[in-house]
Design a protein that fits this description.
The protein is built from 14 helices and twelve strands. The chain has helices at 4-11, 15-23, 30-43, 49-56, 74-90, 103-111, 131-136, 160-173, 186-190, 194-210, 223-236, 251-260, 277-282, 294-309; strands spanning 61-65, 94-98, 118-121, 141-144, 155-158, 178-183, 213-218, 242-245, 270-274, 288-290, 317-320, 324-325. A six-stranded parallel sheet has the order 2-1-3-4-5-11, sandwiched between helices. The chain has a six-stranded mixed sheet with strand order 7-6-8-9-10-12, with helices on one face. The chain is elongated, with a radius of gyration of 25 Å. It starts with a helix and ends in a 12-residue tail after the last strand. The relative contact order is 0.12.
Length: 337
């Protein structure tokens, strides 16, 4: 491992001069600084994080704020987290993961220290109480999610409203006239979580445009709740032939429950979902779905932060267009004799 003494010997200066060049504590000549920097580059020296922070007045740490609230599907959240961490390392930054539900207090606690340079905020609510503080902070931030009022903020996400619309439009094209959305757990809607509300908006708008009979059903994330939901749907909507699922844990048990009730997918019931590709592809009948682009969103959020840290203008809103992949769970509705 290259040491500071190796850099000093290569540059023909003292170790303390190398330290000054890194920390900026004392002035040194431009010629000496260039010589030290050239030696660092040639030898591949990586200064201690503390020295880098002194030189740049930055910590080279990003905060990922993702409160693990009730109803959150942790595996999907972790896909976003892995993407953020991977992209941050490409920019020589570490990531501090904040999972407590502390709201404004937690953000202020981190922002009032030198712990982090910038923040990525997840689980955004339509009327999120953290927004005023985020607008006022002297540290840049990016939201993964779109609140109702996004002015003055930098936001990125899948266009969940368009995703809800696209699922319904495909079912309508296949001839389905009675459709249902099996959505996130009830507490997710009670909080006003933005992505879940956007799916409902898109689903309802598309169903109304197409003249479909539609209904929306929050669902607890458990196999037992999935079984109860299947029974309720068939009891309340006996003509049901199309279902959109936006609740990863109940996707497979819901399809199993319909099968036990005598409905085959896709012969009797077409199913679409908004979920990770690996889940949709892994089921006995692969599910037609819109992927949640966690890798793309996480990487792009970090890129936006890097530009903001460099005082480069960025777009306030980045909505990724949904893409529906047709698999075996959807088919043309067979008219009732």
């Amino acid at each position: 491992m290259v040491k500071i003494t190796d850099v000093a010997r290569h540059a023909g200066v003292s170790p303390s001069t190398v330290s000054y060049a890194l920390s900026g504590k004392r002035p040194i000549s431009e010629e000496t600084r260039r010589r030290v920097e050239e030696s660092i580059r040639r030898l591949g020296y990586r200064p201690h994080a503390g020295a880098r922070a002194l030189a740049s007045s930055r910590s080279n740490v990003l905060a990922l704020v993702v409160p693990l609230r009730a109803g959150i599907h942790v595996p999907v959240v972790m896909q976003f987290a892995v993407s953020v961490v991977t992209e941050a390392r490409r920019h020589d930054h570490d990531v501090l993961l904040l999972t407590q539900e502390e709201g404004e207090e937690g953000l202020r606690r981190v922002a009032d220290t030198a712990l982090v340079d910038a923040l990525i905020v997840m689980d955004v609510q339509l009327h999120d109480p953290r927004l005023s503080l985020l607008r006022a902070l002297d540290r840049p931030s990016v939201l993964i999610g779109f609140p109702a009022a996004a002015e003055g903020l930098t936001c990125i996400d899948l266009d969940f409203r368009a995703a809800g619309e696209l699922c319904v439009e495909r079912l309508a094209e296949l001839g389905h006239r009675v459709v249902a959305l099996v959505g996130s757990p009830p507490e997710v809607y009670v909080r006003g979580t933005a992505f879940a509300q956007r799916v409902v908006e898109g689903f309802t708008a598309a169903a109304d445009r197409a003249g479909l009979v539609s209904s929306v059903h929050p669902c607890e994330a458990s196999p037992a709740a999935a079984r109860r939901m299947a029974e309720q749907l068939l009891r309340e909507q006996p003509g049901l032939t199309g279902v959109v699922v936006h609740n990863e844990p109940v996707l497979e048990p819901l399809i199993d429950a319909f099968a036990h009730l005598g409905l085959r997918v896709p012969a009797d019931l077409s199913v679409t979902a908004i979920c990770p590709d690996e889940l949709a592809e892994s089921l006995p009948v692969p599910v037609t779905s819109i992927a949640i682009p966690s890798a793309e969103v996480g990487a792009h959020a970090v890129e936006l932060l890097m530009r903001k840290l460099a005082d480069t203008p960025v777009a306030e809103a980045t909505l990724l267009a949904p893409r529906l992949v047709e698999r075996g769970s959807t088919g043309v509705r067979t008219p009732t004799p």
